[in-house]
Task: inverse folding
């Protein structure tokens, strides 16, 4: 686990350059987006939401929309989900320069 202050120090030193804002879907797959570390610290680390399309939550394993879900009806548009802090900041177990939250 990392604190926001530790993450800021690692981004400043160049040890981390990318933050992955991710969540799991109904099948347990990790979905989300990659953010530049400096951008993450300037926005999401200060409480701004990391916007993501809720359509990602309505897909089954073949990446087709699950029938009957009201969550992502294209007739009404596809709204965003807005995860906001607090985050769980974790370093992945391999030597990439990114952090998953």
Result:
């Amino acid at each position: 686990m990392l604190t926001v202050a530790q993450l800021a120090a690692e981004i400043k030193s160049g040890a981390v350059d990318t933050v992955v804002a991710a969540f799991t879907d109904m099948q347990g797959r990790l979905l989300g987006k990659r953010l530049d570390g400096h951008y993450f610290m300037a926005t999401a680390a200060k409480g701004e939401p990391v916007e993501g399309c809720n359509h990602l939550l309505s897909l089954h394993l073949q990446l087709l929309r699950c029938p009957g879900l009201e969550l992502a009806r294209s007739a009404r548009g596809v709204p965003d989900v807005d995860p906001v802090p607090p985050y769980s900041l974790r370093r992945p177990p391999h030597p990439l320069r990114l952090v998953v939250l």
